[in-house]
Amino acid sequence: MSYTSRRYDQGESISCAFYSKIGACRHGEKCSKKHIKPTSSRTLLLANLYQNPKMNKSENEDSSPQQLQETLDLFYQDVFVHLSRKCEVASMIVCENENNHLNGNVYVRFYSENDAARVNQELNQEWFNGKPVHSDLSPVSNFDEARCRAYDTDTCERGEMCNYMHLREPSASIMDKLTKGQEKKYLSRQLEKLKAQLAEFPPPSEKPNGDDDASSNTTATTTTNSLLSQLE
Ligand SMILES: [Zn+2]
Ligand SMILES: [Zn+2]
Predict the structure, then answer these.
(1) CATH number corresponding to 13-169
(2) How many angstroms separate the alpha carbon of residue 73 from the centre of ligand 2?
(3) Where are the zinc-finger regions (C3H1-type) in this chain (predicted)?
(4) Phi first, then psi: what are they for 79, rounded to 5°?
(5) What is the distance in A from the centroid of ligand 2 to the CA of 182?
(6) What backbone torsions phi and psi does residue 22 show, to the nearest 5 degrees?
(7) How many CB atoms lie under 10 A from the CB of residue 140?
(8) Among all ligands shown, which has an atom nearest to the Cα of 149?
C-alpha cells in the first residue's frame, strides 16, 4: 500500500459514521474514530430522557404492548408540549433500544439553528423526573436514515446489538392532537404579528377628505380586521 492511499484510508476512517448518522455510538468516548460535535445544528439529542419500561422491568413483570404504548404516549405528550412552548417543534422521536447508548434517547428537530441553540441552553438548566436533563446539539439530520427499518416491522434480529434507532411512535390520535395544537398556537402568533402590522396603517381620519381611494382602503382594512378576528 502506498503512502498516499494509506493517508486516504485514514482520512476515510477519521469520523465515526454511527455518531454522525445516528447521533450515538456504542463505544462512546472510547471510540477509535472521531465523534465530531456540530457547532450548530437544528437537532438536539436529549440523552436517555425516556424511562423505557423494557429496560426498567423487574424480573417477573413484562409490560404488555398496550402498557408500553401508554407509557410512551404520556411521555411523548409531556415532552412535546414542554418543547413546543419554547419553540415550534419540526419533529421529535423517541428510541427504545435496549442498550446503553441509544436507550431512551429523544431527538428533536427545530426549524432553525438559532432556535435549537436557545432551547439547548434552556434545557441544560432543567430537571426531568428528578434527574438533570442532558441536551446536546446533534449531527443527525435525517431521522429516516437513522431508524432501524426491521424494527418497524418487528423483525430486527440484532436486538441490543443493533446500532440503529428502534423507535416507538406515539398513537396516531395523540400525534394528531399535538400537531394541531401546535399549529394553532403558532398560527395565532402569526395573526398577532399581522394585526400589529395592520395597526401601523395610518388611521382613516388622517386621510384627505373626499378621496375615493382612501375610503376604499379603510373598508379593506376593516374587512381584513374582521376576517382576522374570525380566524382566532
Ligand atoms: Zn464512534
Ligand atoms: Zn434494529
Answers:
(1) 3.30.70.330
(2) 21
(3) 10-38, 142-169
(4) -70, -40
(5) 31
(6) -105, -15
(7) 24
(8) 2
Q: What is the pLDDT of residues 116-170, one digit of tens each?
A: 999 999 999 999 999 999 999 999 999 999 999 999 999 999 999 999 999 999 9
96 CA to centre of ligand 2 in angstroms:
10
- How many CA atoms does the CB half-sphere of 184 hold within 13 Å? 9
CA dihedral 179, 133, 101, 120 (to 10 degrees): 60
3-state DSSP helix/strand/coil percent for the chain, to nearest 5? 50, 10, 35
pTM of the predicted structure, to 2 decimals: 0.78
- Cα–Cα distance measured from residue 42 to residue 167, given in angstroms and rounded to the nearest whole number: 20
Distances, alpha carbon 143 to alpha carbons 7, 23, 93, 140, 149, in Å: 32, 10, 8, 7, 11
Residues in the chain: 232
Rounded to 5 degrees, φ, ψ at 85 are -70, -30
C-alpha cell at 15: 469520523
Reported as type and span, the H/E element at residue 92 is strand 89-94
